[in-house]
UniProtKB/TrEMBL annotation:
It holds the Pfam family TPR_8. The lineage of its organism: Eukaryota, Metazoa, Spiralia, Gnathifera, Rotifera. It comes from the Eukaryota. This is Uncharacterized protein. TPR repeats lie at residues 639-672. InterPro entries: TPR-like_helical_dom_sf (IPR011990), TPR_rpt (IPR019734). The keyword Zinc-finger does not apply. Gene3D superfamilies: Tetratricopeptide repeat domain.
Amino acid sequence: MAVVWVPIEGFNKRSHMTGIGDLVRVAFKRNLNRFIFGQSSYDSEEFRYSQSSQHDNAGLYSGESCRLSAVICSHDEQCCSSRCLCRRWSTIGEQRCVRKYVAYLIGSKSLMAFGNAKVCPIADSDSSIRLIYWLDREVNENGDNRQTQQRIRSIHNNLKTFHDPHECRTSVESLTEQDRLILIVSGSLGRDILQTVHDLPQLSSVYVYCMDKKLNEEWARQYRKIKDVIVCEQNLIDRIKFDKKTLVNIDQGISFNIYTITDDPNPSIIRENESFVRSLILLKSIIRLRFDPKDREELISCLKKQFHGNKRQLRITEEFKQEYSNETALLWYIHESFLYTTLNKALNEQSIEQMLLFRLYLQDMYEQLKQNQYGSQIRVYHSQMMSFEERHDLEKSKNGYISIKTFLFANTNQNKVLESLINTQTTSDKCKILFVIDANPSVATANPFIDISRFHSFMSETIIMFMLGSIFRLKDVNRDGNIWTVQMELCGENEHNLEQVFEYMNRIHGNENRDSTIDRRAFGDIAHRIGESDVARKMYDRQLDEAPKNDPVRSDLHCSLGRVYREKKDYSRSMKCYNEALKECLRRSSSNFIELGNLYGSIAEIYLLTHNDRKSLGYYEKAVAQYQKAHAEDHEKMADFYNNMGSIYRRDKMYADALEFYKRALVIDGKHLSSNHPNIAKTHNNIAIIYYYLSRYDLALNHYRLSLAIKVQTLDPQHYSIANVYSNIGSVYEIQSDFRRAAIHYRKAADIYHVILPDGHEDLIKIDDQLKNVLNQLH
């Protein structure tokens, strides 16, 4: 049969490509000799052509088969510049252009002459063949196995089956060191054949496909190339499918928050520490948030909107929708897909709404990491370019802590990491950082880390991935030449210096089991406590929309929304929510005295904030009456009611009544709170104000000093509330004509106000005038 090869339209020879001999060797290595020597049809993912009788000649039409459709790829000239829209550029690379160049040259005398010569495969790792061998005595006898073969071949055409271990061993040994082989093997035959072939370089990975996972896992542990022991056909197909995908760039830099151990009240350090704690609370809460099937639909919908017009990403999104399962979470992340970039962007920016969209995925990732926790202590290395400012932050935080915002990859091969860092081009605004990380799984049980090379058949090195939110202690930061080395150690929740952090997190979580799931309302409460009121409102609204009409949680949700709107100073919406909660509560029962008392108190507070003292006082009286019905006269909530009622009487200049309610509040607070609690300081301050109005200045000074002593212990030295007490004490001394002491306290107040208040603030102007007046009196 005469063979006529039709050149690809628009193809130009490239002067930079390798010689004809090398090209044809590659072609023959790829089995293209089958095209030339008479095979009448061939069809695969990599190459497609068909025999034709056009122009009265038997001919072959050749071209790369595009993954986006069944037609020949039209981007021939763009492959080597990596602009081709076909996603297989990343897995085949320039070999596509090699095949097209061979196609162009076929038919020339030089090539046909070469075609009759003996062809020796070249040793080129880029042209290595990726093969799958399946060894099982019943591989071709069992109907299920034959069906599995078909499924594997639909993904990977180079599958070869064996029922004889000797034949399989001989075939494995005949492969070159540049070839890459995945071996699927039964449990019984695996024990035998791996003793002789496991250490061969051409064997990349092994999957034990068996009936008894637990039994075979016992002997499989001694072989590092065994990636998994699999009993489910779908799991096997998933692993093979993902092995064809490109691995993500594991050299992405660390994004982190810093926690500094210091007594320095520097505002920037305080903000950094707050961000550290907030980020941890947020991540833990998202992972705990209960799954709702609608969330997955919402994620897919948002991704489709985000990738509108991007055919490649839309196709991957559809694959994700159809094929994702909790067992493939890690595979989706470490292989090239939208998840790695989209999720990391959300995590780095701490975008709560975006993170919530991915929460099912984050939960599955966390579970997979826990199930595959690395089993022993290990030292790993990570390198990156970092700004001088970030490096300085690490240096000054030595002996402090960092928490990572994203998943972190690190390599056990120090030389390779260093070589990569040394070869990285230095820029004027960045420096080279080598992270040396020690990790012990017995210490950091809450933040697992795993060896991801188990999840990629062609990854030859041990790559460790740490869970996002992992905390590391910064042991040392030093410089060697132009490389900075940061030594750090993975920490657990028993870290002594972080006890206060974890105690605070427990309070934010309501002292619940932080491994248990939470509903939207509980997540909204947590978001509310860390200042994310908009997120909290959306959580409450969503659960309220889904709650049945007779669900008792509706009253709680309306009440939570009322708090959110109150803090946003949207008092009309807040009042509406509290009234809805009151209706729900009364509809269910009129004997739930404590809940009714709280709602009456909340409504009273809104009236108080909108300066409707009469209505406010009336609702506070209703609140007190409900607590009294419940025989809870000394309940800590009563202290709040009495304090606010005292303030109403004070504004009405009914000082005796005001004093009585403030004293009741102080007694109740004393039963429930520590002696230096801020609420007790507030009540002492209120009592002092009343004594000032009653001209009982010694008692006023006494309560101001009690208030000041607590605030100095518990607040920042430059806190507004401390300055306010100094100013009040100064006023008492001034009215007693003790101008020297008045000046001392006014000056203390002024020193704080000048630091924390902007120029022109009314309190700043007032304190300066007061200080000036008493100084004039002294002269």
